[in-house]
Amino acid sequence: MEKLKTIKFSEFGKIVTGKTPSSSCPNDFGTEIPFITPTDDFDNKFIIHPLRFLSIEGKEKLYGKLLPKNSVMVTCIGSAMGKVAMTNSDTITNQQINSIVVGKEFNPDYIFYVLKNNYKLLRSAASGSTVLPLLNKTDFENLECKIFPQLQTQQKIAHTLSILDRKIALNQ
């Protein structure tokens, strides 16, 4: 049987912390690119109806923050901290979300489920003495969890869990 391996979040792929366009540039907001914040609905695997969108102009200004489909987003502030969802299209997030553009040696769905099942780890990793808990990018990158390292095993687990998620969503 394959053994679990402890791995840092930074090893899953490229970590991207989002950014909010300046409010002095209203043309950055529009209807083209989903703009995810912790106030969006992280209850499902994908955020189907984001509350806000950016324009193409806004996307171009934040080009380095663009997340491709199947990136894993994690809220890293306040009462929403530790919530996890995946992108289902090119997406940009605000600075209160750290995301992982999952590397090819990992299954993105599997990484989603691993992080979703490490909610307590994410919640307890907050730093600072403020009332508002915060998990910065450096601390996020250095968090560790146990995973099955073989891609084939990850794919099997993710496939099974995805089927169950779809069934639950259908029943709701």
Molecular structure report:
The structure is a single chain. With 172 residues, this protein is α+β, with helices and mostly antiparallel strands. The protein has a single domain (5-171), classed as DNA methylase specificity domains (Adenine-n6-DNA-methyltransferase TaqI, Chain A, domain 2, Alpha-Beta Complex), CATH 3.90.220.20. The protein contains five helices and nine strands. The strands form three sheets. It has a four-stranded antiparallel beta sheet. A hairpin with an 8-residue loop joins β5 and β6 (84-86). α2 packs across α5 (151-171). It is globular. The relative contact order is 0.21.
Number-wise, the strands total: 9
Note the total helix count.
Answer: 5
Which H/E pattern describes the elements? EEEEHEEEEHHHEH
Tally the structural domains. 1
Report the CATH C-level class.
Alpha Beta
Show unreliable segments: none
Q: Strand order across the biggest sheet?
A: 2-8-5-6
CATH homologous superfamily title: DNA methylase specificity domains
What share of residues is helical?
A: 25-40%
Strand content: 15-25%
Structure classification = alpha+beta
Shape designation: globular
CATH-derived architecture = Alpha-Beta Complex
Q: Distance N terminus to C terminus?
A: 36 Å
Look up the CATH topology. Answer: Adenine-n6-DNA-methyltransferase TaqI, Chain A, domain 2
Radius of gyration: 16 Å
What do the pLDDT scores average to? 93
The profile of the biggest β sheet is:
4 strands, antiparallel
Q: How would you classify the quaternary structure?
A: single chain
